[in-house]
Structures are given as C-alpha cells and as structure tokens.
Amino acid sequence: MKTDLRKLVVLVGLGALLLLAACGGGGTTASGGGGAASGGSATIEVSVDGENLAFNKTTLEAAAGQQVTLTFKNVSAVQQHNWVLVSGGDSAAAAIASDGLQAGLAANYLPANNANVLAHTKVLDGGASETITFTAPSAGTYLFICTVPGHYPLMQGTMTVK
Q1: Residue 139 CB partners (closer than 8 Å, separation 6+)
Q2: 65 Ramachandran zone, left/alpha/beta (phi>0; psi -120 to 50)
Q3: How far apart are alpha carbons 115 and 125 in whole angstroms?
C-alpha cells in the first residue's frame, strides 16, 4: 500500500514538472529563429493590447542583417494604429511622431524621407493586419512606436538587435 502511494506521489510530481516545463518561457519577448550568419529569418507577430494604447509585446529580438517578417495586427475595435521601427532613441521617436502629425493620415502619420524610420506598417483600422519584411539593422537597441496622434510615447517598445 505504501509503495503504491509513493508511486502515485512520484507520478503526480513528475506530471507537475512536465506541465510547468511545457508552460514555461512566458514573457513579452518575440524573436525569430535562425541567425543572420546562418541566413535565417525571423517571424514576429505584434498586436495592440486590446483598446489600451499599448502593444501586446514590448520587447522584440532579431539578429543584425536578418530578414524579419513582421505581422502587425490591430485588434482594437475602434482605434487606428501603426508600427514604426525607429533609430536614434527617444528624441528621434518624438520628432517622428511630431512630424508625422503634420504629415497626416494620408502619409500614415510618417514624415517623408526620414532616415530614422527603419521599417513601418500603414495606419491600420481596427481589425486589420499587415505583414512587412525588412532587414534588421546593425546591433543595438531600437524603439518601435505608434505614430497615430496621441499614441506615442504610450505605445512603444524596444527591438534588440544582436
């Protein structure tokens, strides 16, 4: 009887460990498979956090020179959003958002010919999505933002390129 109870306890314990291992690795980081040296590519999905002025992921990763395929989903029912990868830090992001306001919706709230805009989606209505492909920049940390008026600096995150 004691042997059967011990076996049951061991089996339940192993089952719990397997369950924890299968559910582990949470967090908000998204990274693609394969490195630039191996010619790999990264596939990343980012969406809006419901009706909040926030992205559902605040950290992304890629390898320098890696081909990145990013799908941005605007899951909001009523708000427009875009996804913009920026070099130059907070000051550049603030300038892009400010200049984007003047550029207007027809320009996707993005200033024309701004070298600090590395990649971007269009402004998407609620429920829409867009997939873009770009080459990850050199190693460093980059901001991604939404340039729809009033959304930056609330809607931002970082992409770490290794």
Answers
A1: 64, 161, 162
A2: left
A3: 26
Q: pTM of this prediction? A: 0.77
Question: Residue 30 forms beta bridges with which residues?
Answer: 60
Q: Is 160 or 19 the better-scoring residue by pLDDT?
A: 160
Q: Which CATH number fits domain 29-161: 2.60.40.420, 3.30.300.30, 3.40.1350.10, 3.40.47.10?
A: 2.60.40.420
In this structure, what are the phi and psi dihedrals at residue 94, rounded to the nearest 5 degrees? -65, -40
Among 49, 92, 93, 51, which residue's Cα sits nearest to residue 72?
49
What does the domain layout of the chain look like in residue ranges? Answer: 29-161
Structure tokens given for 66: 């890696």
Closest Cα to residue 57, out of 86, 91, 20, 83?
A: 83
Residue the block writes with tokens 């980059």: 142
